[in-house]
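Researcher: Structure for this, please.
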Amino acid sequence: MWRISALPRQSLAAQWLAAVTELPQLLSQLRPYLRPSTNTLVANVSSDASYLLFESPLSAEGSKTITWSQLQADPVLYATWQQRQREFLQVLEPHLKTMQLKGVTQYSPNAACLLKLVLTHPQHLYVVNGKDPVVLPFYDQAFYQKLLHEQPQLLTPTAPASSASAASAGPAGPAAAGLAANTAAPGSNATAATAANAAPAMGGAPLGTAAAPARPVWPWVLLGLLLLLGLFGLFWWLWQHMNAEKAQAAAAELAQSLVAEEQLLDQNLALQRDVAERIALAQDLRLLDANRALLQEVEAKLKDAERLSLEQALSADTATLKQNLLMQDLVQALLAAAEAKPAVPAAPAAKPAAPAAPAATADKGASAPAASAVKTKRLPKCEVIVKEGKVPQLVMAIDGSGSMLNVLPDGKIRMAAAQEAANALISRVDRNVPIHLLGIQGCPLARDYGVFSGAQRQRLNAAIAQINPLVAVSPLRVLTPLVSAMRGMAGSVPANTDAVGILISDGVDTCSNTRNLDLCAVAREIHAQKPKLKIHVVLVGDDAPEAKCVAAITGGRVFHPGNTSELVSALKTAGQTLERVCE
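Model: Predicted structure, token format:
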């Protein structure tokens, strides 16, 4: 509950002290029939020995005082004030009519009249959050005197009364005269004039004036009219008395109708939000269909390019094979010639032939380096290791979660930098090495893009482009199945084949089924199953320190690049052993 203000009791206009004391009970009777937004229009009031305390259920944030002229100058705020004021007065009207039937003046000192007075002639106004007006049921003595001076009709009784009716003139005249006497300041001519003008309206004569001379005709006509007016007032009082309960029931029904309309409005707003969400979903579906059509077109072009690339690769491999066969025949011929020369014995009788020995020795020395060069360890033959299934393998797992949309210090998005580095590595890897690609995006399992041969490098580049959180409908909700990616790397390579794994990530596992697992324990499990798999860990963020032990356990390295160029260099270093694996 926000305390708006605490005003001294002694500054309150004395006529309204009892009315302010009765006001909480009246407000508690009215509030069940008011909408929540209208309920806050009038502040709650409580009191202690020295102060009147005014509170509101609204938040104090953004509150400020405002004058009546400032309220009228704001069209939106003034329209809100008028709507809530009208609703409040509609619920208050039965109480006012009941008092009017009892001969109470329109603004005599009671709680209902004070409430109507502050709603039609406010003094203390507040605005909360720039949209909710709040009025305090409080009048300073000076403000109230000025109000009576400017609008003397506030002292006029609204209930019908006749000067000939003692029952009407009795309570109304003294009440109005007492109210004028209490509100008049010493020496105030305007207030005295107001009281003097009010007395004739209440059935008396102005003070200090002589009685008018008798008229022969019109006094009787006036008396008849007054009698008719008294009879009409009596009929009106009886009708109001009989229908007071009906009026309260109508007010309650009106309040319930307002509540029902507000609920209907809330339902309409909810329906509008649902329609907006469905429209947005339909737009996303249309975009997805367009992307799917574009992807099919790209795949068709990639197939054509792949077929052409395969034919070119086969031609190049055929030429290389022919060159290797010619080189092999040449080496075998050299080896045969080198082995045949030392087998020829020298003739014993031919002594002059002895000087030729250095030449033979020279020939033997000349052929020795060639033989030793031939016998040095070379790369295995490609057709041999392919046939035996011993070609080293490369498996890459690239993070495609929402956090990869963050920016590196050089201004490039992490996802774009990782894709650039992966493409740079692929261009250097031996075309005999198959590359297995995994996408760390979406729970519960990492996405398996399959194995790509040397002739499928373009398709591999296109698959890497698909590892992107922006492809998803809601990129910020793409989670990180890190454990699933590590197990997928281990499951994609044979146990007895050398393999290099490259794990590119900036986060930890965020899937509900694996986020509590220990990455180091998972790495030890993988190393026990696939001891020849070395996993290099490339960290592009600061929030995955646990992943470092994966490289330490499997025999790999940890790279922590700070920008795009360092990331490209790290991947080239991680895949350096696979640049040429056979000849």
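Researcher: Any notable elements?
Model: Confidence is low (pLDDT under 50) at residues 157-215, 343-376. The radius of gyration is 50 Å.
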